[in-house]
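Because discrete structure vocabularies remain unfamiliar, we turn briefly to a single example record, giving the amino acid sequence and backbone structure tokens:
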Amino acid sequence: MDKPNIHKKAPVEHIDYKDVTRLGALVNPHARILNRRRTGLSAKAQRDLSKAVKRARFLALMPYIQH
């Protein structure tokens, strides 16, 4: 079964914490960060994603949880 690879459809050099629409595609409906198998990111890009999501949450650009 082939899962969609979000990152390979629209590759980026830098994952920016201010780009909440792109970050929103990389979290599930409960606002949890998707794993590497689902995102298709490399280990370094996944770490960058994690930092970006956490920064966006801290600055109140993204919610910590969804109800």
In short: The chain has one domain: 6-58.
